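RECORD TYPE: inverse folding
INPUT: structure tokens
STRUCTURE:
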């Protein structure tokens, strides 16, 4: 199952509202074909997706930007859900973020502003970022469905 949306928003709130509407439609479609993951699983996936989208909408564009384009593609497979987020903002320097740790005490060492990425990394099975040749930020989020 594939659902895709293009959001050209002017504010973070508008962008997240559009993302939540897209997720709601996606999960309704998944339920319709009897493939809806459990609520706690969906909560983790939704939270990770919202964190990455919010970071792009908030930090990839200049504060005075009148448009903040964000393309979202959600795909449901038998064993996983994938999301692809693409924005046209400034590149991200991933080296400035700490690596994922299994030690919960390490969260105290995360710099201010690094929590969202840590949350997404922890909630997902895979989180990849790349800068495309045409200057877009591309995030791929994968969460395996158990069962």
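DESIGNED SEQUENCE:
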């Amino acid at each position: 199952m594939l659902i895709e949306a293009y959001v050209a928003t002017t504010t973070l709130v508008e962008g997240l509202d559009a993302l939540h509407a897209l997720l709601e439609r996606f999960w309704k479609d998944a339920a319709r074909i009897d493939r809806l993951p459990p609520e706690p699983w969906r909560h983790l996936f939704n939270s990770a997706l919202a964190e990455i989208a919010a970071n792009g909408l908030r930090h990839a564009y200049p504060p005075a930007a009148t448009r903040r384009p964000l393309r979202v593609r959600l795909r449901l497979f038998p064993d996983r859900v994938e999301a692809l987020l693409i924005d046209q903002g400034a590149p991200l320097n991933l080296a400035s973020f700490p690596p994922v740790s299994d030690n919960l005490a390490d969260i105290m060492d995360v710099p201010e502003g690094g929590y969202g990425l840590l949350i997404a990394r922890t909630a997902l099975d895979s989180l990849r970022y790349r800068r495309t040749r045409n200057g877009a930020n591309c995030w791929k989020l994968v969460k395996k469905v158990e069962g």
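NOTES: The chain has one domain: 9-63+89-144.
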